[in-house]
Amino acid sequence: MSRPRNDTLLRALLRQPTEHTPVWLMRQAGRYLPEYNETRRRAGSFLDLCRNPQLATEVTLQPLARYDLDAAILFSDILTVPDAMGLGLYFAEGEGPKFERPLREEWEIRDLAVPDPYTSLRYVMDAVSQIRRALDNSVPLIGFSGSPFTLACYMIEGGASDDFRRVKTMLYERPDLLHHVLEVTARAVTGYLNAQIESGAQAVMIFDTWGGILSHGAYREFSLAYVERILGELKREYDGQRVPSVVFTKGGGLWLEAIAAAGCDAVGLDWTVDMGEARARVGSRVALQGNLDPMALFARPEIVAREARKVLDSYGPGPGHVFNLGHGISQFTPPENVSVLVNTVHEHSRRRGEK
Ligand code: CP3
């Protein structure tokens, strides 16, 4: 596997110097792009799009054709893993993701099994290898998975939730059952991420979107412990190249030191954290990824540029920063503001000299 021509993302994640701060955006391929909506229409639905490697490749590349981004991220979803575990993923119009068979009974939990990523998630591996071929080493490809706790939230609630009542009731009443769900899911995620790496993913990211809803002690026991276990079993190198890992915990600012000590190369930050303070807290242990408020992209272009410079200045000079949003880009974002953001990050970080 040869190195990508623009490998600033990989170097920044490993805290090596780069000429500019690399930038990519969570959900960079998505509904704010008219060309995405057009391809999705052709596919029939979001899930049909995920399951068609040719079309998944097409939408992965769309934001790179428009913007000077430093990375591609696999077009898929975190919920493909519980789907492969037999829960039956579907999207109800306007209601987000749902499962036909959420985990309700103890026997359903005892029956959970680790899927073989090369059979039940073959379409994801095919998309990864097809995207790598299409990228032709221009920029690196990021693979991803949800964290076991975040996946368990959807598996137990059966979909999105305002209060996470079911999963938290299980946590307090039957922690043994929740641990079993997390244990099986952690093995599923480990196999899934390693298969993505073997198929060509050059960095991997774990999305712990719901870790931040847990109480202080519960976060370590029910979320971080399983992320740590996965990180310990990931392929660190493939084909002679280091494969950096990123952990993003929305609402995880309080636990930054613990996340940085979990064995990842980089920590993703949401917009509630000050970049410079976060850097002072983790020192040289990990790189940091983030963390512009996605809503800043609704302001006028000059304000978008100002806010992007603030994040860069807050991090300060020296290596180890990957610019991103603090969460996924909104579907209502004006696409032209994304150009302003990406170009500002490159120009401002380059002007500041060696990063
Ligand atoms: O970043 C990327 O561009 C890669 C693709 C990606 C998607 N989902 C595509 C998607 C990634 C990395 C995800 C991760 C994901 N999916 C997370 C973790 C990250 C986060 O946002 O916190 C979560 C919690 C999910 C579950 C999920 N999938 C939800 C809650 C939804 C509905 C969201 C909404 O905005 O309605 C999805 C659907 C989804 N996943 C879309 C996309 C582009 C929108 C689907 C559509 O086209 O209608």
Helix content: 40-55%
Strand count, sense and barrel status of the largest sheet are: 7 strands, parallel
Extract low-pLDDT stretches: none
For the terminal residues, how far apart are their CA atoms?
A: 26 Å
Bound small-molecule species: coproporphyrinogen III
Per DSSP, what share of the residues sits in E-state strands of 2 or more residues? 5-15%
**Secondary structure category:** alpha/beta
Count of individual helical segments: 15
Account of the protein in words:
The protein is of the alpha/beta class and 355 residues long. Helices cover 48% and strands 13% of the residues. The strands form three sheets. The protein has a seven-stranded parallel beta sheet with strand order 1-4-5-8-9-10-11. Helix 9 packs across helix 10 (175-199) and helix 10 runs parallel beside helix 11 (216-233). 49% of the residues are buried. The mean pLDDT is 97. Coproporphyrinogen III is lined by residues 26-31, 40, 46, 73, 75, 77-79, 96-97, 144, 146, 160, 207, 209, 328.
